[in-house]
Every structure is written in C-alpha cells, then in structure tokens.
Amino acid sequence: MLTIGAHMSIAKGLARTAENVVAMEANTMQIFSRNPRGSNFKVPEEREVEHFQRIRREHGFGPLLAHAPYTLNLASNQDRVYEFACTVIREDVARMDQLGMELLVFHPGSHTGIGEKAGIRNIAAGLNQAVTGAENIQVLLETMSGKGTEIGWRFEQLREIREQTEHPEKIGICLDTCHLFAAGYDIVRDLDGVLEEFDRVLGLPLLRAIHLNDSLMPLGSRKDRHAVIGGGQIGLEPLLAVLRHPALRELPFFLETPRDDAGHREEIRMLREELGE
Fold first, then answer.
1. pLDDT for residue 193
2. Number of Cβ within a 10 Å radius of residue 238
3. How far is CA 37 from CA 1, 147, 232, 277, in A?
4. Which tens digit of pLDDT belongs to each residue from 144-194?
5. For 67, how many CA atoms within 13 A lie in the half-sphere containing its CB?
6. 3-state secondary structure of 51
C-alpha cells in the first residue's frame, strides 16, 4: 500500500496532528522540527508524546519526516549564520531522534559567494558536529532547484557532501520532484534515465523519501515554485509514474503542495484512486 502524507502543522499538538493524518486517510506525515523561519521550538509533554506514538502505532503509520527550518544555512561562511545552523542541526537531530522520527530532512544551503567546494566543506563539517553515528534517525539531504548559489541541485554535489561526512551511513537523500524538474532533470520524458543517473552517482538505496510536488516553472528553470498535483509543468501522469515506479513505490511520499489539510486529503484520495488503491 502507498505510504503517503502531507506537511502538517503541529500548532495544536502532536496527538491532534496524528489524528488529522488519520482523518486525511494518510499514513505518514511531515512536520517542521521547529519554527520554519525562526529558532523557537516547543518541547511536548510526555503524555502528549505517548498519545502521539499510540496513534501512529495503531494506524500503522509509515516512516515520519521532520523538516529543519529554512533559516538553516550550513554552507555559509558568516560566523553568526554558520554557528546558528550548526546549533539548529545538532539540536534537531537529537530532539527528533528522541521523539522517534525516522527521518530529518534539510536544505543543504547556499554558499553565497565563497564557492561550491567551500560551501560543501562547511555543510559536511556541520553534519559532523551534529551526527554521532549512534542515532536511529536518518538525516536527509534534499535535492534542490539550484536558484542563486544553492547547493544540492546536482547529484554530484550531494555525493561530495556525503563523502566528507564521518558517518555517511546516517546520511540519505530526499528527492523533491519539483526541485528535480526545475534543476533540469527531466522526470517527465525520461524518469528511468534520471533514476539511472541517481543510481550511478549516489546509489538508489540512499533514497529514503520523496517530496511529491508539481512545478509551476518549466524544466531547467532553477526556480522553486510548487504547484498542486497535476496543476503544473510536470503534470499528473508523470507524477503517477513516480508513484508507480518499482524503484520508488515502497518509499514514503510527502505532499508539499500549496493546499490546506482538506486540499491535501483530496489530493491523497485522488492519487489512491488513480493507483487503484
């Protein structure tokens, strides 16, 4: 059975969020590890966590994904920015691991002028001070669209980051269909070719999660603009091909489309109907 969910707000608590997942007919979810555009986070009470864990067990949730804040830039050479990023990734790896989240994804960062190689060295060093190797959680590098000085829009960049980490076994990849398409990987006309390239450069076993999003912008635009499923330049059939692909169909899928919970429920229901589930 397809493992699919959406990005969810936890403003009303973890347990209420898990209940919303069930109501959406989803079986996984993505949450922010803290304020996505700040630094604050709330530590849930033990009773809340126990209720949350009970719901996910009873309803057979697949792997859950936490998303680190957008303000995190591990590629920066500015002391204040880099120290903040190192603190956030270190704290969030520990907190999300303790919470029982299987996966934590983050945007690798933008080198802002110091160059790709230097930015990659900074990202790897930031991961090395955060990941001990004893965690259960997997930390995922997200494939990016390549806007500005963004790192992670080529598979080779992600490989270089992993190769410089002390615990590469704890570092996987999250593929974002919108970002991938905007970066120039043609998943519409050559999905097999793109996956073959991913396998050659990184290895398909490193792929742990997929952000399933359509793209408002055309192939190779290097602009990150998510669209609803079937409402963008990728289209419904190519996204269904992603869901059906034998190398991908056992992975957890997460919608980040510009819709609310009710809209995501409609998308999930439509996708399950299209897949005959």
1. 98
2. 18
3. 34, 19, 26, 37
4. 999 999 999 999 999 999 999 999 999 999 999 999 999 999 999 999 999
5. 25
6. helix
